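To close the chapter, one final illustration. This time we ask the reader to focus less on the individual chains and more on the assembly as a whole: which components sit near each other, and how the overall shape emerges from the parts.
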Amino acid sequence: MSITIKLFASLREALGEAELQLELGALPPAEVVDGAIRVDSIKAVLSARGADWSDAINQPNLVHALNHKVVYLDALVKDGDELALFPPMTGG
Amino acid sequence: MSVSLQAEPIDIAAEYAALVGKASGAAVTTFTGYVRDHTGEDAVGALELEHYPEMALTVLQDLGRQAVERFGLINWRIVHRFGLLPVSETIVWVGAVADHRGEAISACEFMMDTLKTDAPFWKREQGPEGARWVASRAQDGERRARWERSEGI
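The assembled structure is written out below.
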């Protein structure tokens, strides 16, 4: 099991990836409490992948959706969850 | 009382017939959104619509349920397209059926205003100078916020 990260729109385009898997066991142990990790900790892990990731992941107004529901940075992500990151929505 | 996410054009006549045919309401409001040929002073040749299918379905079904609770709708339908859409084609169609016009009009507006900011779709415009992602507009957030503050009717 792992955490699925999905990226959409300009974020997907800037990073050249639509989906990736994060193994909970491979994340910084100090960030994982009772088998869960906060959204902002996941963003920090992704930001460490390089300058382009850091810029894209920390852009203002980025939206985080956990299992299809918009959440704040303190939401807890567990094994098997799906966390999507994307810019503000512009449908309709 | 359903949602359709589709690549193909919206058959408005068929959608309308299905919406009203099943309902006994006296008031029907529909909204249709089309691809514009310009944004401000920039020409637009076509629109690409990216979406997050599973979340879009969940959000829009929940939106319909909220509209029923809030406005007592007898029937509703939300159709949203994705993929490459040429100028003048339909993007979105929303219908609301109620006993009275106030509820039907408000419900349609509520669903559109909320859909704009809450449903995971992203527009990318193709123009003479290439393609660019459409930025969210502050006015859309303000329209959405009105429904948080009031009962809408």
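Chain B touches chain A through 28 residues (CB under 8 Å). Strands of chain B lie at 2-6, 27-34, 38-39, 42-43, 46-51, 75-81, 83-86, 90-98, 121-127, 130-133. With these observations in hand, you are ready for the problems at the end of the chapter.
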